[in-house]
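WARN  no MSA supplied for this record, continuing single-sequence
INFO  ligand: calcium ion
INFO  echoing inputs
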Amino acid sequence: MKFFTKILVASAFLTGLSSAQAAFINFDDYTISGYANQDKSGSATTSDAGFTLDLAGNTWVDVLFNSTITSTSILNFTFEATGLNAELYGIAFDTDDSYVYNDMGTFSFVGGSQASEITSANIFDNYTSGDGSVSYSINVGDFFTGAFNRLVFILDNDANASGSFASFTNVEVCDSAAACATSAPSAPTAVSSPTHLGFIGLSLFAIAALRRKVK
Ligand SMILES: [Ca+2]
Ligand SMILES: [Ca+2]
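INFO  complex generated
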């Protein structure tokens, strides 16, 4: 009987969590740390009252942010890169401070000259420095699920220790499009779970519908 009570409490707690309205991450509320062995040069700072994370140089950083990704989960953020075009731009979900190059299924890249080389990751766009401010609404739950305790923000440029800049603004992880603080771009297009080999093309198609220039 005690066991049963515990289950009820646990499920009520989970229901409360899943119905919570998403909110933008305020980076000033988190400690920003170097991730794995990839915080090599440059800096991580905040702007826009904490709602923008600004990376410079060649650095991957993480914040301890708990999330549970289900099949309906959405990752929203506005991205802008300037300066030298970097090798990788992206956001990853992780459970520890390390990664395996051939097992990056919870990594989402939106651009960079090396993004297409990482076949184990999800490639959602071919953003190039100077493309301006672009808002992404990525149905990450179609690509992976699970519980995570950190978010990783990636500006990778091993060839140039300085000169690249990337900013991530209004980042949110929502249980569903309806729970997002970001209003959905017009006519969001859902993609069914693709096979790994096929999903690059499908993802670009989805992002083409969801990619939205911000004035
Ligand atoms: Ca890891
Ligand atoms: Ca690199």
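The pocket of calcium ion (ligand 2) is lined by residues 87, 114, 156, 158 (CB under 6 Å).
INFO  checksum written, moving to next record
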